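Progress against Task 2.4 (sequence-to-structure conversion) is shown through the following example record, which the project officer requested during the mid-term review.
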Amino acid sequence: MVLSNKDLNYREIMAHAVCGRGSKYSQTTYTIRPANRPTTIGGCWVMNHSYEAELVGDYVEVRGRFDVNVWYSYNGNSETAVAKDTVSYVEQIALRDLDLSADRETREVEVRVLQNPNCLDAAVTGNGSEILVRVEKELGVEVIGRTKLCIVTCEAVEKKDDDFMEEEEDLLEEVDIED
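Structure tokens generated for the chain above:
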């Protein structure tokens, strides 16, 4: 069946769609000030990551925080302790393929943690009173909004119910049912 332009119609469908996305990998160094003068580092871990995000112009701003825990020795390596600190961050993530025509009122930002914050290394500073902790993380964001999709439609050929029933019966006859 060949269709001409006069047979075509257009429809607009409202849908929620990804109208922008981006990601960002970062490494940041934080300074931890323990209660005692550290001698050596025994280990470091990051936990309790939380965040929120909002669309700001053509980028997403993610504000987050997590706890950094550093196990260290002090007093000439004769005692150990854990230094705990909650650190905050702000990441601005540029968006690719941002559709500015999507309804601003319905836009939502979704954040995916592509790589949880993780301690790469921890070291006692030169003066020996602080610990520098280098943390890596990667975040992905998607902006989802209501947008219009334009589709081409055409008139469907009408079928009579009798024709449908005959085709269905023909199909049923072709199926062999084995016990």
